[in-house]
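Help needed: design a sequence for this.
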Protein backbone atom coordinates (compact mmCIF):
# COMPACT_ATOMS: atom_id res chain seq x y z
CA UNK A 1 0.00 0.00 0.00
CA UNK A 2 1.50 3.44 -0.95
CA UNK A 3 2.29 5.72 1.93
CA UNK A 4 2.36 9.50 1.59
CA UNK A 5 5.97 10.60 2.23
CA UNK A 6 5.04 13.48 4.54
CA UNK A 7 2.74 13.68 7.54
CA UNK A 8 0.91 16.90 6.78
CA UNK A 9 -2.82 16.41 7.39
CA UNK A 10 -4.10 18.82 4.75
CA UNK A 11 -3.17 21.35 2.12
CA UNK A 12 -4.76 24.37 0.49
CA UNK A 13 -3.35 25.16 -2.93
CA UNK A 14 -4.08 28.66 -4.17
CA UNK A 15 -1.72 29.01 -7.09
CA UNK A 16 -1.90 28.51 -10.82
CA UNK A 17 0.99 26.03 -10.69
CA UNK A 18 0.15 22.45 -11.67
CA UNK A 19 3.07 21.04 -9.70
CA UNK A 20 1.66 22.48 -6.46
CA UNK A 21 -1.49 20.40 -6.75
CA UNK A 22 0.54 17.30 -7.56
CA UNK A 23 2.80 17.91 -4.56
CA UNK A 24 -0.19 18.34 -2.25
CA UNK A 25 -1.44 14.89 -3.24
CA UNK A 26 2.01 13.38 -2.72
CA UNK A 27 2.52 15.02 0.69
CA UNK A 28 -0.88 14.66 2.35
CA UNK A 29 -1.18 12.27 5.28
CA UNK A 30 -3.60 9.38 5.48
CA UNK A 31 -7.19 10.68 5.47
CA UNK A 32 -5.80 14.14 4.56
CA UNK A 33 -7.83 16.90 2.97
CA UNK A 34 -6.63 18.81 -0.08
CA UNK A 35 -8.39 21.95 -1.32
CA UNK A 36 -7.69 23.16 -4.85
CA UNK A 37 -8.56 26.84 -4.46
CA UNK A 38 -6.40 28.24 -7.26
CA UNK A 39 -7.45 27.51 -10.82
CA UNK A 40 -4.98 26.36 -13.45
CA UNK A 41 -4.41 28.11 -16.79
CA UNK A 42 -6.88 27.16 -19.53
CA UNK A 43 -3.92 26.24 -21.72
CA UNK A 44 -2.57 23.73 -19.15
CA UNK A 45 -5.37 22.62 -16.80
CA UNK A 46 -4.33 19.03 -16.11
CA UNK A 47 -2.22 17.38 -13.42
CA UNK A 48 -0.78 13.91 -12.88
CA UNK A 49 -2.55 12.23 -9.99
CA UNK A 50 -1.27 9.07 -8.28
CA UNK A 51 -4.63 7.37 -7.90
CA UNK A 52 -3.16 4.79 -5.54
CA UNK A 53 -2.24 7.54 -3.06
CA UNK A 54 -5.79 8.87 -3.23
CA UNK A 55 -7.24 5.39 -2.81
CA UNK A 56 -4.97 3.79 -0.20
CA UNK A 57 -4.34 6.94 1.84
CA UNK A 58 -8.05 7.81 1.65
CA UNK A 59 -7.33 11.38 0.52
CA UNK A 60 -10.15 13.91 0.21
CA UNK A 61 -9.64 16.31 -2.72
CA UNK A 62 -12.02 19.23 -3.03
CA UNK A 63 -12.39 22.21 -5.31
CA UNK A 64 -13.11 25.62 -3.82
CA UNK A 65 -14.04 28.86 -5.51
CA UNK A 66 -15.36 32.17 -4.28
CA UNK A 67 -15.83 33.89 -0.96
CA UNK A 68 -18.55 35.00 1.43
CA UNK A 69 -19.94 38.57 1.26
CA UNK A 70 -18.35 39.32 4.65
CA UNK A 71 -14.92 38.50 3.21
CA UNK A 72 -15.50 40.99 0.41
CA UNK A 73 -16.46 43.70 2.91
CA UNK A 74 -13.26 43.23 4.94
CA UNK A 75 -10.83 42.79 2.03
CA UNK A 76 -10.32 46.49 1.11
CA UNK A 77 -9.36 47.35 4.70
CA UNK A 78 -6.90 44.47 4.88
CA UNK A 79 -5.33 45.49 1.58
CA UNK A 80 -5.19 49.23 2.45
CA UNK A 81 -3.56 48.50 5.81
CA UNK A 82 -0.91 46.27 4.23
CA UNK A 83 -2.08 43.31 6.32
CA UNK A 84 -2.60 41.45 3.06
CA UNK A 85 0.16 42.33 0.57
CA UNK A 86 -1.21 42.21 -2.95
CA UNK A 87 1.41 43.89 -5.10
CA UNK A 88 2.87 40.62 -6.39
CA UNK A 89 -0.54 39.06 -7.02
CA UNK A 90 -1.19 41.25 -10.05
CA UNK A 91 0.71 39.96 -13.06
CA UNK A 92 -0.18 42.67 -15.60
CA UNK A 93 -0.84 46.41 -15.09
CA UNK A 94 -2.46 48.29 -17.98
CA UNK A 95 -3.37 51.94 -18.40
CA UNK A 96 -7.03 52.85 -18.88
CA UNK A 97 -6.64 53.38 -22.62
CA UNK A 98 -5.66 49.67 -22.97
CA UNK A 99 -8.58 48.35 -20.87
CA UNK A 100 -10.02 46.15 -23.63
CA UNK A 101 -6.65 44.45 -24.03
CA UNK A 102 -6.99 43.15 -20.45
CA UNK A 103 -9.83 40.84 -21.49
CA UNK A 104 -7.76 39.37 -24.32
CA UNK A 105 -4.78 38.76 -22.03
CA UNK A 106 -6.88 36.81 -19.54
CA UNK A 107 -8.83 34.95 -22.25
CA UNK A 108 -5.55 33.78 -23.81
CA UNK A 109 -4.30 32.57 -20.42
CA UNK A 110 -1.35 34.98 -20.45
CA UNK A 111 -2.25 36.28 -16.98
CA UNK A 112 -4.86 35.73 -14.31
CA UNK A 113 -4.76 38.99 -12.37
CA UNK A 114 -4.82 42.08 -14.58
CA UNK A 115 -5.47 45.61 -13.36
CA UNK A 116 -6.61 48.59 -15.38
CA UNK A 117 -5.30 51.79 -13.83
CA UNK A 118 -6.42 55.34 -14.58
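Sure. Designed sequence:
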Amino acid sequence: MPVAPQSEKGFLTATAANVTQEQAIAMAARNGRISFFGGLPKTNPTITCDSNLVHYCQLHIHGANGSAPEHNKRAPDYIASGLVPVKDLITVHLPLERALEAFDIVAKGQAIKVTVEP
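Strands lie at 8-13, 28-36, 60-63, 92-95, 114-117.
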